[in-house]
Amino acid sequence: MVTILALGAALSYGVADFLGGAVSRRATALQALLWCVPVGFAVVLTAALIDGGAPTATSLTWGFAAGLAGGTGLLTFYGALARGPMSVVAPVSALAAAVLPVAFGVLRGERLSATVLAGVLLCLVAIGMVSMERDERETAPSSRRLTDSGPVMAAVSGICFGVFFTILARAGEDGGLWPIVGSRVGNLAVVLVAVVVTLRVRGGNLGPRVSGRTLIALALLSGTLDASANVLFVVATQHGLLSLAAVLTSLYPAITVLLARIAYSERLRAVQRIGLAVAATGVVLVTAG
Predict the structure, then answer these.
(1) To which H or E segment does residue 257 belong?
(2) 223-268: pLDDT as tens digits
(3) Cα 75 from chain centroid?
(4) What is the CA angle 159-164-170, rounded to 5?
(5) Are 93 and 154 contacting, i.e. CB atoms less than 8 angstroms apart?
(6) Buried b (16+ CB within 10 A) or exposed e, 97-131
(7) Does the pTM exceed 0.85?
């Protein structure tokens, strides 16, 4: 069950990230999130109401804290997608996001069978291999700001996502899916603060808007899929080990990389293709275990 749920989350995250990156390239990361985050909140609220669990102060508080980290990660990640190739940004972010939840799960006593552990290690290796591509646009002088570097921003976003996954799992099962609702409130808070800060700095300019029915539809679909992935991840952690769910969910770059290859002709190096094969092998081992 946890394998199916986590892989479903990976698929949803992968498509959502591709769509969000496509929107950010035509508008701005902040403008894209102004569409993605609210629709995501509506999705998780609907899911929580259908689930029937009762919200608790503890679950909502943990969820809100996770949302602050996740919202910061989303803002940074979308900015990274707008600056660097998706085939580099997504895997770098995923690798950073996978390490923290796995470490936390092991520290709190989670134990994996030899077969599953081998699969998890292969998945981690695969994430790293898929990220091994040099971005020629990132060879600017050292005086360039770190916030203009796609890979650096991707790593920062990955750390934020790792904190998000860890805190969200810490919320436990008592609140049903309500911790995700709390997290979406945290996302909204981060985006609103970013809007206020940006307006003050730029004097009322948030950059190019998300306009046109196609671009708006992509932004809404991205937000819907991202929120759906959140739900699948939380349910996966409620039915299995955090370390396992986090690693399988972090395979989402494979989807983003393949879509970027199709849409933008972003070249896959041999090591990236091998990485995708290693990821498939890891998933098989995890499933068999």
Answers:
(1) helix 253-264
(2) 999 999 999 998 888 888 887 888 788 788 778 878 888 887 766 6
(3) 11
(4) 130
(5) yes
(6) bbbbbbebbeeeeeebeeebbbbbebbbbbbbbbb
(7) no
